[in-house]
Structures are given as C-alpha cells and as structure tokens.
Amino acid sequence: LYRDPVMSRVVQLADQVAPSDASVLITGESGTGKEVMAKYLHARSKRANRPFISINCAAIPENLLESELFGHEKGAFTGAIARRIGKFEEASGGTLLLDEISEMDFRLQAKLLRALQERLIDRVGGTKPVPVDIRVVATSNRNLTEAVRDGIFREDLLFRLNVVNLKLPPLRDRPGDTAALAEHFVEKYAKANGLGRRVLSAEARDALLRAPWPGNVRELENTLHRAVLLSGGEIIGPEAILMPDGTGLVEAASTATLAGQIAQTAETVSRALVGRTVADVERDLILDTLDSVLGNRTHAANILGISIRTLRNKLNQYADEGTAVPGPGEQRHSAA
After folding, report:
1. Can you say whether the dihedral through the CA atoms of 34, 40, 43, 45 is positive or negative?
2. Which residues pair with 165 in a beta bridge?
3. Angle at 179 between CA 176 and CA 182, to 5 degrees
4. How many CA atoms does the CB half-sphere of 37 hold within 13 Å?
5. Count of CA atoms in the C-beta half-sphere (13 A) of 187
6. DSSP-derived pairing of the beta strands 199-200 and 164-167
7. What CA–CA distance (Å, rounded) separates 297 from 162?
8. What three-state secondary structure class fits 227?
9. 10 and 139 together in one domain
10. Looking at 256, 285, 316, which one is the last position of a domain?
C-alpha cells in the first residue's frame, strides 16, 4: 500500500527486476517494510507459484544457523538423529529471503557465497554437494558498505547479493504513505476487533503527518491499533492516539517539529558562517546583541559574557574602522 511518489519509484524498480532471477538486496531502517517488499518481488516473479522461504539470520544462534540454511546429515553432530533439509532446499524452485543478512557470521558468509556462485550447497556432515535452484533476496537495516570496511562483512558476498538494491525510504520521507497507511490500519483493526466504523479526525491526521515515527510503518500500525481500541466512538481524535512511551500524539508531533526547526536553523547558521573570519562573526554578534538591548552596554556585556571594558574596547575599534555603532537607546538603521 503506497501513494507517495518516493515509494512509487521504488516499486517501479521492483516491478522491473521481479521477473529476473537476479539477487536483490533490500535496505532500509527497521519497520520500513523490507519483508513485505521481498514477498512482493516473489509474487511478481516467475517463481510466484513456488515456495517463499524466509530465515532471520539475527534470530538464530550462530552454531545453528548453518544447519538451518544448508541442512544436515544423520549423525553430523550430537542430536542429529535424522537427515534434515535446510532452507535452501525447502525453497527449491522459489525464493529464499535472508533477513538481516548483516548479522551472519563471517565464516558462514564464505559458505553462502559458494552456494550463490555455484548453486550448490553442502549439508552439514554431508559428502556430496546438492544442487539448488532458487532466487535469493536479502535484507539489512545496516550499511553493508560500512560493514565491509569494518571487516565484518565480505565484500565479494556484498557484490553477489547487491545485483539490484531496493532502498526503502523511512516513513518520515513519504508523508503520502503515512496518511494512506493510517486509514488502512484504522479500518483493518476496527474490523479485526469487531468494532463499528472508525475515522480519523482532521486534527489526528495532521498530527500523524508531523510525528517522527522512528519505528516507521511497524510503529504506525501498532499505534493505530491501540488508537482504535482506545477511541470512545466513531471519530478517532488525537487524544486517543498514544505513542509507545505513553506520550500523546500532539506532544510527539510538536517535539518532532521543534527538533526539525532547530536542526534547520543550525544548518542555516552553519552555512552562513562558512568562509567568514572569527573577527567578522564576533563583530556581528556584538553589534546584533547591542541592537537587541537598544545600545545598553552593561546589559549587552552581561549577555555576551564579557566585561564592560572589553565591550567598550571592541566598540571603539569598530567605530575607528568605520562601522556604525549604536549609542545608548539606539539601534542601527539596518537592524530596525
């Protein structure tokens, strides 16, 4: 479900590559819908009628992940009482999703690379390679290029996985999707809980668009599920929408807006300072402060954290250089 142009471009690329067997790496923050996109790729591929198998590389202990992926033979290790096929063989003819691939052990990455290159796997304890016919899709919420630089991810494996990269934008960068998803989740959970029609008020929709959603779509869904349950009637107002920490939606949205304004102001100020000398910046700060207190030297010195003598010496210097200095009770004309 999407309406925002930013997401439309990602889906368009997914549609282009879905029919191929090329490996796809789906990246993005947690909660942006990487697994949903992987299922979409499978559904649009020529393997759509074959299995879609998913394995979370971060959720399985390192010593068990190899067996989960590649299977094992009877007697391969203590407790291996029978042969077991792994996810690669389960996905035969279909798609294998390697979720959170960045968490895979470095040693196991080498075995995965061989499987991708040769389309052959070795069961744990096995003596004969097993051919596999699958398409591999991987996801990561970490920057794998940085992981390569840090020595925890193989560069050759990254190249093999990243034939096509689908980067899912965070929810804060696609406001059109926030509105559409919000309406969808309200309808979904009203129906799931056997409630009547539920509608977001205009104030609630506005606050939803301004909230930061660090957990992205997953956080939005959970928040609106809660709102449906807490609303006292058909109209869901902002007071019924609580963030996971109990903060009201309006408060969270206001905080996010203020933080954005501060960041934007800081960036603007930083840009304005580039290329200027410290003396120039200091002069403007002193004179702007003096303007703000209508030329009151004592007040200005207190604000600036300097002595009145230092301030007077600076002002005398500026006057000698031909710079307009406001007198007591005055402002410069440019500041009026």
Report:
1. negative
2. 25
3. 140
4. 31
5. 6
6. unpaired
7. 63
8. helix
9. yes
10. 256
Per-residue pLDDT of the chain (336 residues; tens, 9 = 90+): 788 999 999 999 999 999 999 999 999 999 999 999 999 999 999 999 999 999 999 999 888 899 999 988 887 787 788 888 899 999 999 999 999 999 999 999 999 999 999 999 988 888 889 999 999 999 999 999 999 999 999 999 999 999 999 999 999 999 889 999 999 999 999 999 999 899 999 999 988 888 888 899 999 999 999 999 988 889 999 888 887 777 767 665 555 444 454 445 455 556 666 677 888 888 988 998 888 888 888 888 888 888 888 999 999 999 999 998 988 888 886 443
How many residues make up the chain in this entry? 336
Domain that includes residue 287, residue range? 275-335
Q: Decide if 293 is inside a domain.
A: yes
Going through the chain in order, the beta strands assigned E by DSSP cover 24-27, 52-56, 95-99, 120-121, 130-131, 135-140, 164-167, 199-200, 235-236
Please classify residue 318 by burial: count the beta carbons closer than 10 Å to its beta carbon, then call 0-12 exposed, 13-18 middle and 19+ buried.
middle
Does residue 261 fall inside a structural domain?
no
Whole-angstrom Cα distance, residue 152 to residue 146?
9
What would the DSSP string read from start to end of 2-29? ---HHHHHHHHHHHHHTTS---EEEE-S
Q: Please report which residue ranges of the chain form alpha helices under DSSP H.
A: 5-17, 34-43, 62-70, 87-90, 106-118, 144-149, 155-161, 175-192, 202-210, 216-230, 249-273, 278-292, 297-304, 308-320
